[in-house]
């Protein structure tokens, strides 16, 4: 979004919007900007969640580095509950998902995995200033 569009959205001039964004960056409120990619358009249409429990001997750092190196990995979260990690992957197809899960089990130090395929998802965007 341009500063002109942002300013129009929040009632500021383009210069005012740019100054506000820079102040928020300097204060650490805005920590970065992202680009969203239509994964299906780059051949990764199969979206899935893999929940992972680690073997007692597996260090979190080793597991995290391994999973981050997998091409399908989109997101990795250390979580509470029955599993240790929640991994979101974007795969080419079912075979790619199978190979990704097998790699996590074989080389990632997982004791247990549970995989769910995403049938539909919605990204929710809140207007500026709304938590």
Rg result: 19 Å
Secondary structure: number of strands = 4
The major β-sheet equals:
4 strands, antiparallel
Strand content: 15-25%
SSE class: alpha+beta
Give the topology string: H per helix, E per strand. HHEHEEHE
Strand order of the largest sheet: 2-3-1-4
Helical residues, percent: 25-40%
Arithmetic mean pLDDT: 92
Helical element count?
4
Distance between the termini: 20 Å
The best one-word shape is elongated
Unreliable parts: none
Structure commentary:
By secondary structure, the protein is of the alpha+beta class. It has 4 helices and 4 strands. It has helices at 3-10, 14-26, 60-69, 94-107, and strands at residues 46-54, 73-78, 85-91, 110-117. The protein has a 4-stranded antiparallel beta sheet, with helices on one face. The relative contact order is 0.17.
């Amino acid at each position: 979004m341009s500063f002109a569009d942002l300013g129009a959205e929040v009632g500021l001039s383009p210069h005012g919007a740019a100054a506000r964004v820079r102040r928020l960056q300097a204060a650490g409120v805005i920590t970065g900007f992202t680009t969203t990619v239509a994964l299906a358009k780059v051949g990764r249409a199969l979206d899935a969640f893999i929940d992972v429990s680690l073997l007692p001997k597996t260090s979190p750092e080793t597991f995290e580095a391994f999973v981050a190196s997998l091409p399908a990995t989109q997101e990795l979260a250390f979580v509470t509950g029955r599993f240790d990690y929640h991994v979101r992957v974007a795969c080419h197809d079912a075979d790619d998902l199978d190979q990704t899960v097998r790699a996590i089990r074989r080389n990632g130090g997982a004791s247990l995995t549970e995989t769910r395929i995403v049938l539909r998802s919605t990204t929710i965007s809140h207007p500026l200033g709304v938590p």
